[in-house]
What we know:
The protein has 486 residues and is an alpha/beta fold. 24% of the residues lie in helices and 24% in strands. The structure holds beta-L-fucopyranose. The site of beta-L-fucopyranose has 6 residues, from loops.
Amino acid sequence: MKNRLILATMMATLAMCMAAQSTPPAAVEPVPTPQQVAWQRMETYAFVHFGPNTFLDQEWGYGDADPACFNPTRLDCEQWVRTALAAGMRGIILTAKHHDGFCLWPSRYTDYSIARSPYKGGQGDIVAQLAAACRKHGLKLGLYLSPWDRHQASYGQTEYVDYYYNQLEELLTQYGPLFEVWLDGANGGDGWYGGACEKRTIDRRTYYDWPRGHELVARLQPGAIIFSDGGPGCRWVGNEDGHAGETNWSLLRIGEVYPGYERYSELTGGHADGDAWVAAECDVSIRPGWFYHEREDTLVKSVDQLVDLYYRSVGHNATLLLNLPVNRDGLIHPIDSARAVAMHQRIKAELSHNLLAGAKVKASNIRDKRLYGTRHLTDGDPDTYWATADGVTRATLEFILPSQQRIDRLMLQEHIALGQRVRAFSIEYHNRGRWHAIDPGEETTTIGCKRLLRFGAVTTSRLRIRFDDSRGPLCISEVGAYCSPD
Ligand code: FUL
């Protein structure tokens, strides 16, 4: 009797697995919001650090700089925007206020701003100029508003927190749609503070009353992603070198992480058991510093280095926020823009011709051929995907190419709207009658929004991907194989 029951259960499970399932796989929580999905698909965007530091040749202004120092003579926000676009970027984030407290827009709440500078006789508003340039050229705008303010006398008291949110409200309401609001984690310490010239320490978990800021952004800019060390929209990746972990979960145990969280390495790879969707953003400067320094003109990252960063950020399930500092003229330096554009061209050359596009695909399991079939794997549409049946968390995909090809790059994408699933995978190529493992020299664990792998070229007409472990049925939206030009 017992045996018959077991057999019946097994048959029923088998039948369930074999029958086509026309409903989508259930989401594996947590899942991203549509805004988070759209944000991650932006892939790369520019950071612009600009302010009195640029003119005083420093990184962290003390808060006592004379506004008279701020005087760009050829400032052209359209040049910044055109540079970002030519570099394949989809947005630009400006330091509206850095730690020195100086505002690049004429804030109603302080006169420590562009209004007291010689620039345009005190009539300038660089946030407005950049917003107009972005609108004109179709680039998205984001703003950085440093919580730490080394100028304000009230810093450390509750009065400052009101001041901070008043400023945030100005930025959220005066400049059109923002794609990201950047809340830096560096906080408290020495400063001018209205002339007190002392060290002030605040409780980084409680002082700013962050729920109030998050509510303000959600209400006034519902499309904007909030960056901070621990989200809630996206998280710091735990380093300023520009790379995410080879294993990188877009999940975070959000209650544990706060601005200034010390366990950086956890931010690099996320939490496999996280209860919130908080994907990583890799912020890095094209030069050693965040602000422009002439002495660093010879230290701009090479095209090879920048391309490597793309593979280790976007190709590791994160975004790349690349800083292109603006110089004293008010322009991005030609060396920096040339390198950023060349980086984009190289990436395009390496990853634009998908050798799998005409291939025949054999999948060990298909949820429903019509709706979740393998043709979606190479259709270039990130919203369609191949899926396996409920209960099938291991599967293989074999691509049979019309002819032998040299391959040295692979791209995998999960349909993240339904959650990040894959925990382990491996890749193989067929040659002389047997399968050989491809070793990309890095962990092949998570995939997420995009995973890119580089490896020594193999020549083959058959490529196999084994999905070895997943948190639910597989949902893979794209697979690509490429041959880099050299
Ligand atoms: C850090 C700041 O202290 C740096 O000056 C820079 O703005 C960087 C992006 O974030 O925390």
